[in-house]
Design brief:
The longest helix has 20 residues. The chain has 640 residues and is an alpha/beta fold. The strands form four sheets. It has a six-stranded parallel β-sheet with strand order 5-4-6-7-3-8, with helices on both faces. Strands 9-18-17-10-16 form a five-stranded parallel β-sheet. A five-stranded antiparallel β-sheet has the order 14-13-12-11-15. 41% of the residues lie in helices and 15% in strands. It is built from 26 helices and 18 strands.
Length: 640
């Protein structure tokens, strides 16, 4: 550091964010090598792999049914020494590989890399192995905790975090010097550090660095967002609308079935990337675009998030034009890939793109050929993607693509109710045929009783909807009116039995979640010595015996996150008295819009429901995609 900067150095030492900014400037000026402090991911590979990372379809099952790796004898022996259960051994080997025993012996806190292990459990394991050498400030512990905190943030949707946020979380886990721990994690390469110009920040002086935000991220998600931003830039840079006949597009737009469809077709004719937003009825507009493109001789298809979404698309398009995102990435659905591994498409419309995370979006975009068109269609009012990232929201905020707002409202009293919720108003809508029914309850016990009554009797009798087509939605799994309690009551009424197969009986409705945020709805068909056989909308599949307890739940009642992307003829939303703290406008909007013909609300929150709707959703996700896209646009703009 130059001798004339002692004051700046002292200030930076007191301010972790300033210190990180100083480190970034030191790298950029050549004062310190990147390897010593600041690491950026390598550029993304030029072409994607044929399958999505993790082999899991969005909303679907694991792409393969590979058996777990053999467990070396040293792993359960080491776990026993550390007081951990032998049953953890297969998951340890899956997370750390065949050398898991040696890795854990050298660094017991690596146990935190195993799914489901909590910091207090890893600390207990480390104390048993290290004895007096175990210390809360051990750099092995602080690095493992930092990675664990970043992965937990990713599960909540964040691709990056501010350094101060990471330091606060480390302090909650008794790390004695959290700021030093953050710096050490950066130096060790556990996390990467990034800087982006602050939007709307004050202009820097002639000798001053521009104000920046400093964020920390894991390499996996950094690569995904950077690959996505680069892929979108490539599509825009290789797009040439004149190649496929502008006059034909004009005729197709004029023949569109609605004004919003006309606008969408016109925007797609002129642009490589288009954003389209609207509710359930607006799904007809990207379907009309795909149909028009196919009529022009282009290779076009539309991808939905779930099998149910694909089913609704297939009602509007030829069967081969409606796919799921997971099926498209896996090659099980859609036009397939060419010799370069690219989709054989000229136009791809991704519906439910509000459910699209950074990794799946990057895999899609990197699989599109040069010159292709991409339409991101979704409803930004809904709960966001299950995994890290907020692709639709970031692309909208960056303003890097034409935005077509649908003017097609969802019909009926349910549609009117949802429209009001979207703008923060909870209307009392007219429902002459009881399309919307509010059922007040005093406590959780009454909520469970009334819910069972609605599903098994009232809704089927009044609307002719079979109980199997009524879905219950509640804020969480636990509690007196969570999914566990509701599913127990509904099983007793709809499919009583002893739970012969690991708590399940043939005919039980279940939710299979092979990975966090990925839910596949099915019915128990049978069981054998290898596992549980389930019937889903896309056929029969098996869940391995050792995976049933961790991945299968009863599924008459779901959380709103599990239900997002699917709709049923009737929905019953359960809001017990303690639900107010767990719901916000996005939750209510998502849950209430799952019923196509009827919505019953079992309401025990009193004024808490109206407050949740009136207040905008809090705690936005922290991501880098918006900044990356904005920086691309700024660098592409002509100099003044």
């Amino acid at each position: 550091m130059p001798a004339d900067e002692p004051a700046a150095a002292a200030a930076a030492a007191k301010d972790p964010a300033a210190e990180l900014r100083a480190a970034v400037r030191a790298v950029e000026t050549g004062e310190r090598p990147a390897a010593s402090f600041f690491t950026r991911p390598a550029p993304p590979p030029p072409r994607p792999a044929a399958t999505r990372p993790g082999g899991v379809r969005p909303g679907g099952a694991a792409a393969g049914a590979a058996r777990p790796a053999a467990v070396p004898a040293a792993v359960p022996e080491l776990l026993a020494r550390g007081g951990a259960p032998d049953a953890l051994a297969p998951r340890v080997v899956a997370a750390l590989g065949e050398g898991a025993a040696e890795e854990l012996a050298a660094d017991p806190w690596r146990l935190l890399a195993v799914d489901g292990v909590r910091p207090e459990q890893a600390d207990g394991f480390a104390r048993a192995l290290l004895g007096p050498e175990c210390a809360p400030g051990d750099e092995r512990r602080t690095r493992a905790l930092t990675a664990w905190l970043m992965e937990r943030a990713a599960a909540a949707g964040h691709t990056a975090l501010e350094p101060a946020s990471v330091a606060r979380s480390l302090a909650e886990h008794a790390v004695p010097d959290p700021d030093a721990a953050v710096r050490d994690a950066i130096e060790a390469g556990t996390v990467l550090v990034f800087q982006h110009p602050l939007p709307g920040g004050p202009a820097a002086g002639e000798d001053e660095a521009p104000p920046v935000s400093v964020l920390l991220g894991l390499e996996r998600y950094a690569l995904a967002e950077e690959s996505l931003a680069d892929g979108l830039s490539r599509l825009r840079g290789t797009f040439g609308p004149a190649a496929d006949g502008g006059q034909d597009w004009a005729a197709a737009a004029a023949a569109a079935p609605s004004p919003s469809a006309t606008e969408l077709i016109g925007a797609a004719a002129r642009s490589a990337l288009v954003v389209h937003t609207g509710g359930e009825a607006a799904r007809a507009e990207p379907a009309a675009l795909v149909a028009a493109a196919r009529a022009l001789g282009l290779r076009a298809c539309a991808a939905a998030h779930t099998e149910d979404g694909r089913r609704r698309l297939a009602a509007l398009l030829p069967a081969d034009a409606a796919v799921t995102v997971g099926g498209l990435l896996d090659g099980a659905e859609g036009p397939g890939r060419d010799e370069d591994g690219l989709f054989a498409v000229d136009l791809l419309a991704v519906l439910d793109s509000d459910r699209l995370g950074a990794e799946a979006a990057a895999a899609l975009v990197e699989s599109l050929p040069d010159g292709a068109r991409l339409v991101l269609s979704g409803d930004p009012q809904l709960l966001g993607a299950a995994g890290p990232g907020q692709v639709l929201a970031d692309v909208l905020a960056a303003g890097c693509a034409p935005h077509v707002r649908s003017r097609t409202p969802d019909p009926g009293p349910v549609g009117e109710l949802i429209s009001g919720i979207g703008v923060g108003e909870l209307h009392q809508v007219a429902a002459p045929d009881k399309e919307v029914v509010i059922v007040p309850v005093r406590d959780a016990g009454e909520a469970v009783h009334r819910t069972a009554q609605l599903v098994t009797d009232s809704v089927p009798r009044a609307f002719g909807v079979p109980a199997a087509d009524v879905r219950v939605i509640t804020p969480g799994h636990g509690g007196a009116a969570g999914t566990r309690a509701l599913n127990a009551a509904l099983k007793e009424r709809l499919n009583p039995g002893p739970g012969t197969f690991g708590g399940f009986d043939p005919g039980d409705r279940v939710a299979h979640s092979p990975a966090p945020g990925h839910t596949r709805l099915a019915t128990v068909a049978d069981a054998d010595g290898e596992g549980l056989w389930l019937d889903g909308v896309d056929g029969r599949f098996r869940v391995a015996k050792e995976r049933v307890a961790d991945t299968v739940r009863h599924g008459w009642a779901l959380t709103a996150h599990q239900a997002a992307g699917s709709r049923w003829p009737a929905a019953v939303v359960v809001l017990p008295g303690d639900a107010s703290a767990a719901i916000d406008r996005a939750w209510v909007y998502t849950a209430f819009s799952r019923g196509e013909r009827h919505l019953s609300v079992v309401q025990g929150t009193g004024p808490g429901l109206a407050r949740a709707v009136a207040e905008p959703p809090a705690h936005p996700r922290t991501t880098r995609l918006r900044a990356l896209l904005s920086e691309q646009a700024a660098s592409a703009a002509p100099a003044p």
